Amino acid sequence: MDPLLSETLSVTQAIQLILAPAVMINACGLLLLGISNKFSNVLNRIRLLTGEKRSLLNRAPDSGLLPLESQRIESIKRQLNGLLERARLLRDAVLCYFVSIGIFIVTSILIGFDFFFQIPWLRYFIIGIFLIGMIVVFGGVVFGVNDTFKGFSIVKFEVDVDK
To answer: What contacts 99, CB < 8 A, 6 or more positions away?
Structure first.
């Protein structure tokens, strides 16, 4: 039996290899769904606080700001700074997940290409690309974790201001 022939993948095995990155595409899609929802909520919160601040400042020329209104404006400014930081973290997480999906798609295509052309060095390249995709996913997770801590600190500040 020819050793080269025995190493050749069957079509079924090739399809299985091509689908392995698809599992990661699906996982990234789920992560993206959750993080996009958080991103949308943070952006909406920024819009609400900006509108509230604008409303308070628009009333100021007529009657001047009450001490409680001035305190609220300062609170809003600090919250907006924190929320903008959260929006940046979430944006970066979303970008990581989209990039990783692209990388996993490229990995699948390269696996299919390798099935037909059997270029020995291409397998190492495919593994490297797949690992880069996993690192990018990990980067998205790190951004998501940082957002979670940042979100808690913003809420804690808001609660502490009202004490």
So the answer is: 136
